[in-house]
Design a protein that fits this description.
By secondary structure, this protein is of the alpha+beta class. The protein has two domains: 5-142, Fructose-1,6-Bisphosphatase, subunit A, domain 1 (Fructose-1,6-Bisphosphatase, Chain A, domain 1, 2-Layer Sandwich), CATH 3.30.540.10; 151-253, D-Maltodextrin-Binding Protein, domain 2. 35% of the residues lie in helices and 26% in strands. The chain has seven helices and 15 strands. The protein has an eight-stranded mixed β-sheet with strand order 4-3-5-6-7-8-9-10, sandwiched between helices.
Length: 257
């Protein structure tokens, strides 16, 4: 079945527009009703659930036969080959604490390939978007990954798994890597970390434990901005970054592309 990518991108944008004002409103944190999921640090709020329900409503009103895969439970088989991969608030901890670094992330996966992606940074009013084969953009401006000359000049983004044992191993690896690079940043949202790679603010991003909804849209943005990706999930890491230092980084991490 033929699918119009421009139509899907416009629909993803409309779904983001449906929840953006509510998430950005001054009273959005007044009644969060915080629960936990896989661990005490893996939190979900009433706003996460509201945002996912609203996004799903917009998408299925327009395309009722599409599939769904959402962080907060949206799960529907596709009759069209299109599956919407949704993270209603990526970086929920940041949202709860009124910190920057949270976003809305929506991707359209067509026959298993992430083909359309939108990530909206509500704090900075930056909308990242991409269609497969058509480049990556932020507020309409074309993006390209950075081109550091070597790993020693690279700034790496990372995050930490919700499980304490995995976090401990990640911390050991970061401690070993830190002397080899310029610096490390930890912002708290995988989708925006990928976008930061796509626009050259970060040179690479590494994390263990990310899920499809965390990196579906952001990973597409990295690819369309000229970056490279290594995805060894579910047990291994997700890595994305500039092509100029990617192989060297994988070597330092003990990984093979």
């Amino acid at each position: 079945m033929s699918v119009d990518l421009v139509e899907l991108l416009a629909l993803a944008q409309a779904a983001v527009d449906a929840v953006g004002p509510g998430l950005a409103a001054p009273d959005s944190r007044l009644d969060l009703r915080i629960d936990t999921k896989s661990s005490p640090t893996d939190m979900v709020t009433a706003m996460d659930r509201w945002a996912e329900e609203t996004i799903v409503g917009v998408l299925l009103d327009a395309r009722p036969d599409d599939g769904l895969l959402g962080e907060e439970g949206a799960d529907k088989a596709s009759e069209t080959g299109v599956v919407w991969v949704i993270d209603p608030i990526d970086g929920t901890t940041n949202f709860i604490r009124d910190l920057p670094g949270f976003s809305v992330s929506i991707a359209a996966r067509i026959d298993g390939v992430d083909s359309v992606g939108v990530v909206h940074d509500l704090v900075r009013s930056e909308r990242f978007s991409a269609m497969i084969g058509s480049g990556a953009f932020c507020n309409g401006e074309a993006l390209h990954v950075s081109e550091p000359v070597d790993l020693a000049r690279a700034v790496l983004g990372t995050g930490f798994n919700y499980q304490p044992a995995v976090r401990s191993e990640q911390a050991k690896l970061i401690a070993e890597l830190l002397p080899e690079i310029a610096d490390i940043r930890r912002f708290g949202g995988a989708a925006l970390d990928c976008c930061s790679v796509a626009c050259g603010r970060l040179d690479a991003y590494y994390e263990v434990g990310v899920q499809d909804w965390d990196i579906a849209a952001g990973g597409l943005l990295v690819r369309e901005a000229g970056g490279r990706i290594l995805d060894q999930r579910p047990d291994g890491p997700f890595v994305c970054g500039s092509a100029t230092i990617f192989d060297e980084l994988l070597g330092r991490l003990g990984l093979v592309d």
